[in-house]
């Protein structure tokens, strides 16, 4: 029966239907039969009917005589249900029919349709209460596979028009694609290096360091035929995107005709689920898919699918086109060359027509523009209902289901979806159930049609979708985590993120390093439009990034052999190719999963190679010669999460997973048979593979105690598609195109006893081996601070900061082994600080004496200290590698933020690291985290020895020595003579604007200032205090007092000194009206206040024990905002002590303890400004 339509009381059966089958169906659906099958429900239905009659008669009369209580307010309704059809979509594990759950008395108010290619069914009710009754009954059924109440999504909307865009740098928002109601609250926060000593222990940094490791722009240009395009739109600034993604490079690779690129060369069809299209547009008439089973214009349903003249596609929205709506006539919903004249189905808002031009506008016809894939064809699937909202019509899930089933049945394997929910405002508890249901629904749909790739727009709300994931929300369909979903964000002409301010609100692409896969052009794009726009317009938004990417996906599928050869692995192959072949763009680092922008030419070239050789071409991360590692060692990095896997999505970055550990293992091969954690965990092991001889490599996977669906290997930015001989033996061939380093990542849901051994047959080898070709590489230099004056000489010392405890509970090997990963922030250690010349102690008692002084001890008889020892190596030239001996029961070593090794043991006394290569001439920063008993006889500390990759000295060899002579630790100063040095604070100010309050940092040290002064020298008289013969200054600043003639109202201010003491009791405060305040000690932020004067945190060590003539860098910075601050109020710093009135004492300069380098001495000066 065509689409498998089976209604009750809606549309009469066609004459050609089988009368016997209809009679049998009628018998099965009859009231008597239903009552026999469901006696309990029948009685309940009769009772409800009687009660309803009583209520209908009695309640109105009673209310009119006696009055009725006021109606209680209804619960808040999610926007996803507001205007949604009264439908549910269900599937069962057996052949159950959803109509079986409808009481017979209500069947005349319902109807349903079954999908041809899946077991999904759609039921529609005429009344909300009827739908709720059926939904409740369906949910009780033990054989239920899936059910969801219908919901709607929308294309992002805006009140502005993109036709105002004037040039290639414009990022104005299109009326069909951008949301003008965005706010600035979701803009990407800046990183603050002063608050983190280790930057590789989090999942976000993992993504950046391994999957987005390349930081310079990389563009590969394929050989391109000259197509001499004469489309006038390609000469405009708004055609930048066409060249940027190398469209003609893709055409050349596929051999498209230079005279007629629109000639069809493949069976690939791109299905567009949107608002329809203007089928008569002169630039699009050659781009439409043509239904081979339909005859145009004969007003017949030739292919028997329920649609008349569905030559180009069909409409699945509006009540007229719903097979489950009483009185509808689906047969009148086909879309063809002339159907709009008699059925009125057309694109009423232009969104779909704009998309169509990007996919298939005809090139070389002297008009308009050229699409990405003119040699392919696009199918029109109208799924918007303008009768509900003419300006921003909804996309009902049930309509999308019918459209996908229709297109999939006609052969389409690429779908473009430019709709979603509002990422800015819909993430709230009211919407949570609906958002969860939507995510489940689209995941269910994509999994059922798993031979197709679904390309979804990331949205335009300028929101970090990783924040959605962290809160356990899903932005559908973009964030639906299936192998055949591709989420696409947007870029502007200069390869920056698509972004704009519309009516004072931030709008632009959504992003997320673990949620948004790829970027494609989204700003200032010229394309086809409706007649009221003179058939063309300039548009913006990720609604257009998605179809551009879908078109390239279609070209890739054509290169792979076409849609007739697509299998369930094909979408992932296409996704691999698109993600790994794009151009790396610095602006996308940490913003998208791949950190790449689409490149059509590269993608098609990779697909052709895969099709010709059946080998995936891997993407090289960097060449051997370009590697400039600050730290490198052979081994693997392991990241661990705990939780319960609901599916094999290989993604543990949601809130239902908890990050528990990160460490480096000196594992030379790719045999994974020893795991730190077991059941209910997810691990990610990553390394760089060094390939010296390029060519074809064969891999074998030999596994035990793990199903193939529970692990995944990515190599060279491609997910490996194994050929499985059985569940424990698989193979794959790959092509390493060049010598160099390639990313390799293993993801698995671990169980005790799991083993995965990967064997390699390298180029030229005759057998499979376990080669030692795996490296941990860290290229970032040591962390620096923008405010550091860099004064020398820097002392040879360790800065030790620690907390005290009574036992090892927080560090026990059977408990939280990842403690120092989860608590690596230096701000967390604040009981005490000290400096020592060497951090290597024979016993815990020696450690205690070094930290507390001879016979000193922790407070309250506590016996455990835990924290970190920090130092910098002075720039050295290393002639060999370095191995570190780590002594102590619980230790972790980081160099330049890179994890090196750890020891978690209550019994083992020491361990040695693999051989580490350090960059020459660099002041490497070392963080050594430790926990130890101060009354123990066991050693604690860090020493080093020379080594080679094949020879590391044993811990007891005597080769390990102190590092003291090689240290020069940052943020400390030990001058040889302080007699003539300036005293107090040096202060500078730079004019700023209100945006600086969101950044909260001052400029890089050395940036010329507009205001300069020194305390106590320039102290206002009201703030001066005298201590003996020395005049000091209380730190309470009013700019108007210092500089009476300034008129600018917003200033970034920084004062610094080198301080021989510390903040008293570790507790500081500040008062600043309207702006943020930060304080830093020895390179660590120890106080922060974010602008309201109430929200603050003090994190300085409470006790300090330094050596003589030793000073730590102390920096205070703030933002002065507005005339009130400059002229009436002051920025005041308290130092933690109490004055006579038991109030916090204002920080006062101390000429005996605060010194400055001679270069800091400067006259008081000012320059007023009028603009920034």
Automatic annotation (TrEMBL):
| Low complexity bias locations | 167-225
Keywords on this record? Answer: Hydrolase, Membrane, Protease, Serine protease, Transmembrane, Transmembrane helix
Q: What's the name of the protein?
A: Peptidase S8/S53 domain-containing protein
Any one GO BP annotation for this protein: proteolysis
Q: Which GO terms describe its molecular function?
A: serine-type endopeptidase activity
Q: Does the keyword NAD apply?
A: no
Domain Peptidase S8/S53 positions = 266-582
Region: Disordered; residue ranges are 163-228
Annotated InterPro entries: Peptidase_S8/S53_dom, Peptidase_S8/S53_dom_sf, Peptidase_S8/S53_subtilisin, Peptidase_S8_His-AS, Peptidase_S8_Ser-AS, Peptidase_S8_subtilisin-rel
Tell me where the transmembrane regions lie. 39-61
The entry sums up its family as follows:
Belongs to the peptidase S8 family.
Reading the lineage from the top rank, the first entry is Eukaryota
The active site of this protein is located at 274, 351, 543
